Amino acid sequence: MAEEGACRAVPRLPWATILRAIVLLFLLGVTIYCCFCRQPPEQPGWDVAELHLNLTGPRQDSGLPWKAGPALGRSFLHGPELDNGQVRVHREGIYRLHIQVTLTNCSSAWTTTPRKATLVVGICSPTTHSISLLRLNFGQGCTVSSQRLTPLAHGDTLCTNLTLSLLPSQNADETFFGLQWVHP
Fold this sequence. Notes:
Structural class: alpha+beta
Strand content: 25-35%
Number of strands: 11
Order of helices and strands: HEEEEEEHEEEEE
Number of helices: 2
Helix content: 10-25%
Largest sheet: 6 strands, antiparallel
C-alpha cells in the first residue's frame, strides 16, 4: 500500500515575477498619488511689487507714501495692494523686502542732520501693534539701503517712516521700495 500523505511539490512563483509585481504596484501607487492626492504647487513669484515715492509736496508726517503703475516705468504691483501709499499683502508667507532712500540736498560731508535720521520699515496693520522689520541709520551718508527676508501674514500692511523732516529724493534710481513673495 502506498503511503498516504506523500509530499506533493507545491508550485512556486519565481522571484523575478514577484519583484516585477511589487514594482508595478509601487509605480501604480505613485501614479495615483501624483494624479489625484497631491495639491498643485502654488505659483511662486506673482506677489511682487517695485514702488516709487509718491510725494507731491512737503511731508506732513514721517510716513513715506509709495505708488506703482505702468506710467511710472519700472514700477509695478502684482498681488499686494496700495492703501494710502502703504503696501498690504494678501498672501501669507516669507517675503524678501528691499528699500533704498536717498536724501535730497544732502552732501556726504560731515553733517549732524543725516546722522540722526532713521528710516524704519515695519508692519503697521491696524490689528497688530507696530513691528519694526528694518531700522536704518543714515550715519554720515545721504543714502541707506537694505534687504531682508521676513514672514508676513495675510493682511499685513507695511509702512515706511523717515524721522526728522528731511526730504527724500523722488528719483526712481535713488529711492525705491519693493517686496517679493518667495515661500509659503
